[in-house]
Amino acid sequence: SWSAVPAGPPDPILGVTEAFKADKDPRKINLGVGAYRDENGKPYILGSVKKAEELLTSSKPDKEYLPITGLPEFTKKAALLAYGADSEPLKQGAVAVTQSISGTGALRIGGAFLARHYPHSKVIYLPVPSWGNHTPIFRDSGLEVRGYRYFDKKTVGLDFEGLKADLLAAPEQAIVLLHACAHNPTGIDPTPEQWQIISDIVKERKLFPFFDMAYQGFASGSTSQDAFAVRHFVSQGHQIALAQSFAKNMGLYGERVGAFSLTTADPEEKARVDSQLKIIIRPMYSNPPLHGARIANAILGDKALYSQWEGEVKGMADRIISMREKLYSTLTHDLKTPGEWGHIKNQIGMFSFTGLTPPQTKALAEKAHVYMTGDGRISMAGLNSSNIEYFAESVNAAVRG
Ligand code: PLP
Ligand code: TYF
Prior knowledge:
Blueprint: H1 14-22, E1 29-30, H2 47-58, H3 72-83, H4 88-91, E2 95-101, H5 102-117, E3 123-128, H6 134-140, E4 144-149, E5 151-152, E6 157-158, H7 160-169, E7 175-179, H8 192-204, E8 208-213, H9 223-226, H10 228-235, E9 241-245, E10 257-263, H11 267-281, H12 291-300, H13 303-334, H14 342-346, E11 351-353, H15 358-368, E12 370-371, E13 377-379, H16 388-400
Helix pairs in contact: 2-12, 2-13, 3-12, 5-6, 7-8, 8-10, 13-16, 15-16
This protein binds pyridoxal-5'-phosphate and (2S)-2-hydroxy-3-(4-hydroxyphenyl)propanoic acid.
Pyridoxal-5'-phosphate binds near residues 104 and 179.
Protein name: Aspartate aminotransferase
Family: Belongs to the class-I pyridoxal-phosphate-dependent aminotransferase family.
EC number: 2.6.1.1
């Protein structure tokens, strides 16, 4: 039956982990996948998550199915975390929200909803570059994927002129995907002033903004600061779609906790949208997993756990920032590595887009056992005080050739 099925390529990001696992050298470093590691290079279970799990275990909850759109207490709190207590649509009861299989599932539900119910356009604009999974997610949802300029190779910064020109030239009412903060893979975000200009252009062209917020709290250490773009757009009267993930900010990767929401005109419209979200989800997976949503709900709903969590998110963000500073100073001051490395310090979130070329990343893997994606992206969280000097020396050697 399957003789005509061609072998597909490995996932460009997850494939890096395979290569890393096969390497037996003790010095090996995996900077491929964007998953937080602690100072000892180990996966980190947040203390707030452990406590929430203990509370859950002792309350002996049942294992019944959740409703199609998930745990209602959780989705309510997730929306509050993203939109903020001052959000008009939230106060009016006009935000339709469903639990999702983490951020990926939220994007997929959003793609499917827009493909079916957004009457004005089937075109979605993604930043170039964007997270590698965005294109297949939206293509498989039935949308036509196009790009807008985002990254400027020359400055290793935001191509804001290109971005503005491309959004101004987009057909009216097209969908535009925006990374809410901590852009993956570049680590480059618009400034608040630039976000205000983007919001004006989106309004002028009547574009439909779809925010992907996979790193709330991870960029600055503050969940409200990282929600600036989302809240600004909503305050300007935009209706938005929003994908949220709790993989990174709560370290709940494999638990698959997320939410998808749409702001609507009023509670009556929200109810109609809710009904169609259910119709999309029911045949896909019927209802979402229970455990992770209960953990997130416990943390978001308890003052002490919430403030512990806030401290832990900030701890992760701060450790990444300290690794940026250490890497920058080792490359520039200690090793005098040729080139400009200021972007390593200035970039935001989980990743640094180093500017290393594909031959350099290949040499790093083969000669130094250092693994990253072929585009030169490194997951900053893979660095720690035990491996950062070896990493910097390896980069130095690769750059000098
Ligand atoms: N969106 C972006 C930009 C991401 O970087 C990620 C994870 O790396 C996701 C969405 C979704 O991840 P998950 O499905 O694990 O929440
Ligand atoms: O490193 C990245 O950009 C992501 C990480 O189910 C990731 O691709 C890995 C697995 C997954 C979702 C995201």
